[in-house]
Specification:
- By secondary structure, this protein is of the alpha+beta class.
- The chain has one domain: Alpha-Beta Plaits (2-Layer Sandwich), CATH 3.30.70.
- The protein contains three helices and four strands; from the N terminus they run βαββαβα.
- A four-stranded antiparallel beta sheet has the order 2-3-1-4.
- A hairpin with a 2-residue loop joins strand 2 and strand 3.
- The chain is globular.
- It starts with a strand and ends with a helix.
Length: 113
């Protein structure tokens, strides 16, 4: 079973919400997870995709709905079935490392940006 969660709100891209969702997916024993931030209608959206059994998906949805992140003003939470590929958690963690390295390198190369 695959699920896509779409979470909209101000400052959602500044917080460690993605890490919280990754940790929950790992805790639930899910093997496939991915998340990213995208802009829609001028507001950032956190997109989280997860694959698991019915119980894991249900627990993940409940976590997303109940989890409050300090400093984040969540305005909309939506869920929909997802039919596409959801990468392994290991692949997603590698993606996060590359993403952080990219930010670090850009910060060194362009300290005034």
């Amino acid at each position: 079973m695959k699920l896509q969660a779409v979470i909209s709100g101000e400052r959602i891209e500044d917080m460690d919400f993605r890490l919280s969702l990754l940790l929950k997916a790992t805790e639930l024993g899910c093997e496939n997870f991915f998340s990213c931030i995208r802009m829609a209608d001028g507001l950032p959206q956190l997109i989280a995709r997860i694959e698991g059994d019915e119980g894991q998906i249900s627990d993940f949805k409940r976590f997303v709905q109940m989890h409050k992140q300090d400093g984040v003003d969540v305005s909309v939470i939506g869920f929909e079935e997802y039919a596409g590929h959801v990468p392994s958690i290991q692949t997603f963690m590698s993606f996060c490392i590359v993403e952080l390295l990219d930010k670090w390198v850009r910060g060194i190369d362009h300290p005034n940006d």
